[in-house]
Sodium:sulfate symporter
Amino acid sequence: MTDSRGAPAGQEPPRAPTPAGPAAVSALDMQQREALRKRLLQFAGYAAFAVLAAALWAAAHWGGALGFTPTAAQAAVLVLFTIGAWAFGIFPEPITTLIFFLLAVLLQVAKPAVIFSGFQSAAWWLVFGGAVTGIAVRTTGLGARLASRLFGLRSAGYARYVASVTVASVGLAFVMPSTTGRILLLIPIVLALADRLGLVPGSRGRTGLVMTVAAASYMPPTTILPANIPNSVLLGAADSFYGIHLHYGPYLLLHFPILGALKAVLLVAVICRLFPQADALNVTPPQASNPLSPNERRLSGILLIALAFFATDGWHGISPAWVSVAAAIVCLLPATGIVPPKVFAEQMHITPLVYVAGFLGVGAVVAETGLGERLAQACLEAVNMTPGHLAQNAAWLVAIGSAIGLVSTLPALPAVLTPLAEHFAQASGLPLYAVLMLQVPVFSTVLLPYQCPPIMIAMHLGGVGIRDGTRVTLAMAALTIVFLFPLDYLWWRSLGYLG
């Protein structure tokens, strides 16, 4: 005889097992570790503020002992704090940048026009315009169509997709002289490619494709004149300070074979190693045969016109930034209907824009206060170079540039180093032209993502965290130092550039 629950009379029915197995214990451990991690981050934030306050107070009172004015000493502390917080992710984004802005204004380390110069720079407006066109590429479906056309490999493995994205990123640098512009054009296309391959957000394969665009759009193109901000600054500064004219062909021959082509090959290997995609790619059949929608046709025309202006800026003199803004305005016009106001409000993210302004502001403060020059002079005195040791002195100059690049960020590096090139040439015994050219191995080698705003922009737009970005930059930097720098030195010697 049984009761209504199906159990024998007088007996309790069997109870469902309680979640006390290994899976439940593991989930509990993960929750505890996550809670501990959050507490540690909170503690790190409080500790960072305490250290910053103490350092600023010490700089104001004892900065003179190190040869700094109180303002310059506080500027040095604030710059180091900002860079450290960016590098280690102490605060959620973009709090670090806002802290820098606030304290720089309150402490008067520079004029507000200098501190906030990033917002009025061409680079900031280039990012803004590119972000709008990126929204247009995604929402109209043109990104998915271009992805299937540009990267429509059949029966291809993950490595071949990484290689094709690398070739596209480097190849575009020959006709489009803006790293950020190339990234803003390619990221929506590559994200559409990832969707077509079944690579969901957060997957290793998707992260690898985004980091391929980020690194390949900046690192190899530093060897193409003028494909990005650092070599464009070097071009102008060398002419302004020393009357040395840099020419496209010799510059390309000197730098591209090793730091351009070989570095691109290494990048493909690094991406496939760090972000392996073991599972088979779920390739969604392309739909490129469908006719273009009216919005896709309008957007295609806008992008082609913008690309033509990007590629010919040396002829017409219009900055790529204003071309980008003009394209964004056309996309936003009600007459075109490409990006409706609601879509713009929902998808326009402010974080990358704040980051760009912050990076540029830090570089402007470093230049305005003379911190970069002070650091360069201190490094020069510390290494005590003597003429006649070509390899050793070249290595020291690269090391000095790398140290300054950690403080000033890479786009600002030529503006800091070029005025000191004559002093470096006299101390090292190297030709002045060679000393100027030694900046290229430095600003082409990214140690940490925060040094390069375009890489950070690509990471934010592609949803890649600072940890994954740092893995790529450190791996590429290590391989460059161990393998490419010695090859580059031999290549320079064979061309007769080291005297």
